[in-house]
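re: ur question from yesterday

yeah so i grabbed the chain u mentioned. its 498 aa long if i counted rite. heres the sequnce exactly as i have it in my notes:
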Amino acid sequence: MRQLTSLDAQFLALETPRQSGHVAGVAILDPSTRPSGELTLADIHELMASRLPLLPPLRWRLVDVPLGLDYPYWVDDPDFDLEYHVRELALPAPGTDSKLAEQVARIVARPLDRARPLWELYLIWGLASGSVAMLTKIHHAVIDGLSGAEIMGVMFDLKPEGRDGEMPSMPEPERRPGDLEMLTRGLAGVPRYPLRMLRSIPSALPNLVETPFGTIPGAGTVSRIADRAGRALGREGSVLERTSLKAPKTSFNGRVSPHRRFAFGQLSLDEVKAVKNQYGATVNDVVVSICAGTVRRWLADHDELPAEPLVAQIPVSVRTSAQSGTFGNRIMLMSAPLYTNEPDPVRRLALTHEAMGDMKERHRALPADLLQDANHFIPPAVFARAARATFSLATSSRGRPTWNLVISNVPGPQVPLYCAGARLEANYPVSVITDGMGLNITVMSYCGHMDFGFVADRDQMPDVWCLVDWLAGELDELKPRRGGRARARTAPAASARG
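ran it thru and got these structure tokens back, copy pasting raw so excuse formatting
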């Protein structure tokens, strides 16, 4: 049995009838690289059956501790049913990008069944290009960005023929514990509450404003007092620059509905690198800057462009090499200003470069387990209620969101990959939105391009496709031109989608 950490449990706790805690990805596969020239559901079944021994999280199911006395556990599902998890469907003709995105949005909006391992896979036919889409959906309590990439590394191969040698056989499932055993475990864990809290105080309290609990009234005061007390005791002071970042409210910072919008697009990685080389920035600086320009256009188009920058949540991995293959979550949620208030694209990139440098300095100064330590102040029995109350506070009429949106850049492999012999053409991320953050922009690089996935609340941002259309324009404004720097631009109208 493997117990969830407080951070893993937080992704379960945030779930309500309106918001879910799973992440997904849309892989576009070219079946022409297979000997038969086609990819079938049976092929995916065969692949998954052979790789499951290497993917233990896909066989785990949740077991709750009675009365919520402690965090849940993962156990092997003795009744694991691969056919339940691997499915297929077809798009109505013509299979346009918008029809694929609409189907993905509907599937992603549905919660996963907690009585089974928390993942699903859909093979989607009918794309106008002749390719096949594969939607994978897995709960964030199981994986973060890097552990998700590890799962992707098991499912995909470096050549169409697959892997050499035999796959290991499926291990025998572990015995499922009974209710009495789980109650005993929960009661045994009760004395650990105060110990966990005491161990967390030195790292968590001085940095409370760097966590989702920073929205709670008085959090800044508690952090300052704890920081001064720590200094008096000889500990190094914490970094509190984030207190100056105040997220303005926009229309995508309210309570989310149960419904989603999804859109996706692609940029050349070489063009992004050319821009970063021109201005002495990083690839991530360019990604965040063009996302800021894209969101700026949307805000201006809806007459709600704030005078101050937005605040972006940027997940950062704290997973060490020794923690490779351990799955679960090893992340920190950092904050950075998103300069939507800066009209000049070159100036915006320069400001972003400086802000991202400051964010990296804060990241190095903060304890790696900050999110887990902060959660230890809340007993597991009331953990879910406390997490939902934090989101409610951020979206209340008097509250302010901690962050306006999520921007995540996940580096991926730069060599061709194959799934059951079909070549991977693109891999578009589909991530999480929550109350207070109704927009998520996640990008994954792969084989010379950057694949962007935009997830938004259907009611707050019904026109999410325009963000995809504006991405290329924002990058174009930063490309080197004759005569020096980039030119200022006006926003073009978004192109129609079929």
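noticed a couple things. The longest strand covers residues 86-95. also The first helix runs from residue 6 to 13.
anyway ttyl
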